């Protein structure tokens, strides 16, 4: 990727966001979602899942039949349905006349944390009732569980004949999907990219059970207060589902059709800790942030909002704050917030949803808060962390979106206001 600021690039190499479609536990479009974030509305509720029992989760309530038939829903997957809804909403939001779009020049790039666990668990559970006779195993199992399924279901729904694939990048996948879409546009592999991330994680008991065994599954008498990154009493992750798809275009194409532009991709980076399966490495995280800044041609003090990854775990939140203090030591005007405090951890969709929730800051000049911070952990002390109430910050020029994941994958995406 070029290390020059976007203004120095030709319009054919500048990538902009022209549409946003999403479903989150507290909103089914960007307007609803942003309003919920500004008024402090959590999307976490009581939830129960097989073998684990009562727990908490971020559950989406979108209209799955808006873009699919009942037959499609029976045959497909929850992740596919989330992706189809978000993609349909993104296309509508971008003002595209879909019937006239050349489908062979559209690429679909969706990040996922995991896929296939839901279907496999369900099939084994049902098979138990038939004494494990595999004659009763669903013939839909293979297409439901292949790694490219979520993006593939979107391509089938939309009639897209260009490239489609999913990007497995743990909880950095939402950022990775956007990065992949931008790269393919710059390479000329497509003319329009549907990029982002999806998650059906709340429908697999294995994720809950594993976090519980790890001592990392959040609990609280009030579900809306369970997800509490940076708080001294945080006790783990709230698992969430959701999805967010961005329409990405080259600036030249967006200008040619008079598209509205949410923001421009200024820089990005992905690197790897290579130190532990689960525990993050703040030095590598800081290096990832610095690389994204260098590629954007800006300094830390130029960033107005950092959307943090923090999930509500003891070590994870503290390690990210150490990385942020290192990366932004020279800045006193960068504000930090967290979206998981509202919706929980949407896994493969997390990065995309968290970026989307901050994009309206370019227009309204507000930084949404991190809720549920009753007592800030000294290890998470960031001077300009926005807690509990949104904060007016004036003109927002740059947003940096952090997303990190297991096996040490780190990602940072920088979006700038388009003017």
How would you characterize this protein structure?
With 419 residues, the protein is α/β, with parallel strands linked by helices. The chain folds into two domains: 242 residues, 3-Layer(aba) Sandwich (Peroxisomal Thiolase, Chain A, domain 1); 150 residues, Peroxisomal Thiolase, Chain A, domain 1 (3-Layer(aba) Sandwich), CATH 3.40.47. Helix content is 32%, strand content 21%. The protein has 14 helices and 15 strands. The chain has a ten-stranded mixed β-sheet with strand order 5-4-6-8-1-9-15-14-10-11, sandwiched between helices. A three-stranded mixed β-sheet has the order 2-3-7. It is globular. The mean pLDDT is 97.
Flag low-confidence runs: none
Count of extended strands: 15
The residue fraction in helices comes out at 25-40%
Q: What is the total domain count?
A: 2
Radius of gyration: 20 Å
End-to-end separation in angstroms reads 23 Å
Please state the second-level CATH architecture of the largest domain: 3-Layer(aba) Sandwich
Order of helix and strand elements from N to C terminus? EHEEHHEHHHEHEHEEHEHEHEHHHEEEE
Label the structural class: alpha/beta
CATH superfamily (homologous) name of the largest domain: Thiolase/Chalcone synthase
Average pLDDT taken over every residue: 97
**What is the strand arrangement across the widest sheet?**
5-4-6-8-1-9-15-14-10-11
């Amino acid at each position: 990727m070029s290390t020059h600021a976007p203004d120095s690039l030709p319009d054919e190499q500048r990538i902009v966001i022209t549409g946003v479609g999403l479903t989150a536990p507290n909103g089914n479009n960007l307007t609803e979602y942003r309003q919920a974030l500004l008024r402090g509305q959590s999307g976490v509720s009581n939830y129960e899942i097989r073998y684990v029992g009562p727990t908490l989760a971020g559950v989406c309530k979108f209209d799955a039949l808006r873009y699919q038939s009942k037959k499609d829903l029976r045959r497909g997957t929850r992740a596919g349905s989330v992706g189809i809804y978000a993609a349909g909403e993104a296309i509508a939001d971008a003002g595209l006349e879909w019937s006239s779009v050349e489908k062979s020049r559209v690429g679909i790039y969706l990040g996922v944390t995991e896929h296939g666990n839901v279907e496999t668990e369900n099939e084994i559970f049902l098979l138990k009732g038939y004494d494990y006779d595999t004659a009763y195993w669903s013939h839909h199992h293979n297409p439901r569980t292949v790694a490219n399924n979520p993006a593939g279901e979107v391509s089938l729904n939309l009639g897209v004949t260009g490239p489609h694939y999913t990007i497995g990048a743990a909880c950095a996948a939402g950022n990775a999907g956007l990065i992949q879409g931008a790269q393919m546009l710059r390479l000329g592999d497509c003319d329009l990219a549907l990029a982002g991330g999806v998650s059906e994680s709340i429908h697999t008991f294995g994720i809950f059970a594993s976090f519980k065994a790890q001592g990392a599954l959040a609990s609280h008498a009030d579900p809306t207060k369970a997800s509490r990154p940076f708080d001294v009493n945080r006790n783990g992750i709230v698992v969430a589902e959701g999805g967010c798809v961005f329409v990405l275009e080259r600036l030249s194409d967006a200008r040619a059709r008079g598209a509205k532009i949410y923001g421009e991709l200024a820089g990005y980076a992905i690197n790897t800790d290579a130190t532990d399966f689960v525990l993050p490495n703040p030095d590598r995280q800081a290096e990832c942030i610095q690389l994204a800044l260098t590629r954007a041609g800006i300094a830390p003090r130029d960033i107005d909002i950092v959307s943090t990854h923090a999930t509500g775990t003891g070590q994870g939140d503290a390690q990210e704050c150490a990385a942020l203090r290192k990366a932004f030591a020279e800045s006193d005007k960068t504000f930090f917030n967290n979206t998981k405090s509202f919706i929980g951890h949407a896994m493969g969709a997390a990065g995309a949803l968290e970026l989307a929730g901050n994009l309206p800051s370019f227009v309204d000049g507000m930084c949404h808060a991190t809720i549920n911070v009753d007592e800030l952990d000294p290890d998470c002390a960031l001077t300009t962390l926005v807690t509990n109430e949104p904060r007016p910050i004036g003109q927002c020029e740059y947003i940096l979106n952090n997303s990190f994941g297991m096996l040490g994958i780190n990602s940072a995406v920088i979006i700038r206001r388009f003017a």
